[in-house]
Structures are given as C-alpha cells and as structure tokens.
C-alpha cells in the first residue's frame, strides 16, 4: 500500500511559548465589536487559526501501513538523523541518537500499551478483552451471523407498534387551550452564564477529542481557558440572547436516494455552548419520579417495582412513561433494587 500523508501540529515547547505570548497580546476587540453571533464566531475562528498557523504551523508527514502504532513523527525524524549520522561516519553523534531513539521507542511502547489495556478494564470489560486479543495477535472463533428476514422484521415492528399504542386506543386526546396554560408560561429572559462558568466548562474539555469543522483543537480551548473565557462568554451570551445557534451541525442531503447525511464532528466551541445551556436550564427539567428510565438516581429494576405497586392497583392499565438519558446508556452497570443494593 502507498503511504498516506497526514497533517499535524508539532507541539514543541518553544512553539507553545510563542502561542501563549500571542494569546496574551490578543484583546479580541474585533470579536466584541461584531453584533451577530455568526460574525463573532467567524472572526474568532479566523483569529485563532491565524495564531495557530503562525506559532504552530501545520506539518505533513507520510505514514506507512507498516508503521508501528506507537510511531510518532518525532521518532521518525530522529531515526532519519541517526541513519544520516551512520552513513557519514559520525560515530559519537550516531551513538547519541541511537540511545535517544531507543529510549523514545521504549517509552512510546509503554504509553501505547498502557492506554490501550488499562483504560477500559473496569468500565468496559468486553472492549478490554477485545483489545488484549488484538494486541496479542490472537484469533477469535467467530460464527457467521444470519440476518433476519425482511418479512419477519416488518411483523415484529407491527407487533411492537400495536403493543405501544394499545393503552391509548380508547383515549380521546384533549389538548389544553392556550388560555388554560398561559398563566404557567414564564415571562422572563433566559438565564445567562458568567465568565467563571464559561472558564469552568473550558477547563473540563477533553483535550483528546477530535477537532471539529472549525479546525480549532480541543486542547487549545482547554490549555488557554483563562485567556479565552471572556471572549467565549461573549459569544455564548450573543447566541442565547439572539436565540441563534452559531453554525449548522450538519449539511442536509441533496438527494434522499443517493446522498446520505454526513456525520460531521461538532466544533468544540459548539459543545461548550450546549454544556452551558444545559447547566443553566437543568433546574427547569421537571420529570416525575414515576416516569423515568436510565436517569440519574433510578435503577433499571424500577419497572418491576411499578408493576408491584401502581400498576397492580389499576387493573394493570397503568402507564410507565419512558424518558431515556443516553449519557449513560452504554456504560456498564448492575441491576439495583430501590434501596440501592446491587442485585
């Protein structure tokens, strides 16, 4: 296979020092002077990308399919320098580079295996065993899976639909009139975050997350949270006040038959806005205690408890509404009884 070209930014200490100096000198006046949130984000992105390109320019490296997973551009560069010194007969330089490359490879191997084998041992045992098998080059005996027939899937879907709508077959909908609920509506401005809240969210960004469509890396927002907090706060406030999301998440398909919806990576700044919105409005999410599933503070055995209490007293016609919180849907967990003890 032919080598693949990859782009990266070389995170040298001297490059980061230059970037930090540029951050301290930037006053973000161009962002503050704009009114529309789209214009603010556009100016912010252009300033940040310009600083990154000047301080930490993008480099291109060729990766081969035979490269080890722990191989880095720095190790490759030092290996070439070592071979160059060997060819020229520079023995002292060759020995020095040889020792340095050996040490870097040893450390890179240890870091790679530790990150792969240690991280998911407790949180995801299945993923951990799969990783160990892959690292050990072991083979797994996998049986071929046969997909169900299309007619069977349609029949199952129809049965599920009939089961879901059965409790409401004899109920006539009676939507409330606006006059009946108008007094419950809040006539107040949406809550706005503080600069401190924006800084806290920036500090808790995962620096290893993929870079979004704006090309601003997550590590940059986390590393310079102190300097970026005021300007990010200004963008978030503009987004909330104008009731406007700064950029579209996805590009709509042009042809439903041939053009699939692209799964684009959400910009990290957009995730910051979402987290702040959730924190500001979390108190308004009022869900009844008997209407839950996979929510914080409730166990997955709650349906059995509901069947033994409310459902049994109404001739098994009770309805247990479902609200799913997918933040923990794929985490490992054990069934718990209502008292909190593991079953």
Report on the structure:
This protein has helices spanning 13-25, 29-33, 37-55, 73-88, 91-118, 125-135, 150-165, 178-181, 195-203, 218-223, 225-241, 268-281, 302-308, 310-313; strands at residues 4-9, 58-63. The longest helix has 28 residues, at 91-118. It is flat and about 90 Å long. Strands 1-2 form a two-stranded antiparallel ribbon. The protein contains 14 helices and two strands, in the order βαααβααααααααααα. It has 343 residues and is mainly alpha-helical. The two termini are 52 Å apart. Helix 4 packs antiparallel against helix 5 (91-118).
In what range is the share of β-strand residues?
A: under 5%
Shape: flat
Helix content bin: 40-55%
Radius of gyration: 28 Å
Strand order of the largest sheet: 1-2
Largest sheet: 2 strands, antiparallel
> Low-confidence parts lasting 5 or more residues at pLDDT below 50?
322-343
What's the tally of helices? 14
How far do the termini sit from each other? Answer: 52 Å
Total strand count, please?
Answer: 2
Mean model confidence by pLDDT:
76
Helix/strand/pairing class, anyone?
A: mainly alpha
The arrangement of helices and strands along the chain is: EHHHEHHHHHHHHHHH
């Amino acid at each position: 296979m032919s080598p693949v070209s990859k782009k990266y930014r070389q995170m040298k200490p001297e490059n980061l020092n230059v970037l930090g100096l540029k951050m301290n000198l930037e006053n973000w006046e161009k962002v503050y002077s704009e009114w529309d949130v789209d214009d603010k984000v556009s100016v912010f992105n252009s300033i940040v990308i310009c600083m990154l390109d000047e301080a930490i320019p993008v480099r291109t490296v060729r990766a081969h399919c035979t490269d080890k997973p722990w191989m880095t551009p720095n190790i490759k560069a030092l290996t070439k320098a070592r071979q160059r010194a060997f060819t020229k007969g520079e023995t002292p330089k060759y020995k020095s580079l040889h020792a340095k490359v050996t040490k870097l490879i040893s450390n890179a191997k240890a870091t790679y295996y530790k990150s792969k084998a240690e991280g998911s041992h407790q949180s995801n045992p299945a993923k951990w065993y799969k990783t160990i098998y892959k690292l050990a080059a072991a083979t797994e005996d996998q049986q071929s899976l046969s997909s169900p027939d299309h007619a069977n899937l349609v029949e199952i879907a129809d049965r599920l639909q009939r089961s879901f709508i059965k409790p409401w077959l004899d109920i006539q909908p009676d939507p409330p009139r606006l006059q009946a609920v108008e007094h419950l509506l809040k006539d107040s401005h949406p809550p706005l975050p503080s600069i401190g809240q924006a800084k806290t969210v920036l500090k808790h960004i995962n620096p290893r997350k993929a870079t979004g469509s704006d090309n601003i890396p997550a590590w940059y927002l986390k590393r310079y949270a102190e300097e970026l907090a005021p300007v990010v706060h200004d963008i978030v406030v503009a987004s909330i006040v104008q009731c406007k999301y700064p950029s579209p998440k996805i590009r709509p398909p042009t042809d439903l038959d041939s053009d699939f919806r692209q799964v684009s990576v959400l910009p990290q700044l957009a995730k910051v806005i979402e987290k702040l919105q959730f924190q500001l409005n979390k108190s308004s999410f009022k869900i009844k205690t008997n209407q839950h599933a996979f929510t914080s503070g409730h166990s997955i055995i709650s349906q059995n408890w509901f069947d033994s209490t409310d459902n049994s007293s109404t001739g098994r016609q009770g309805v247990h509404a479902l609200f799913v919180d997918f933040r923990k849907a794929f985490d490992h967990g054990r069934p718990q009884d209502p008292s909190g003890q593991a079953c």
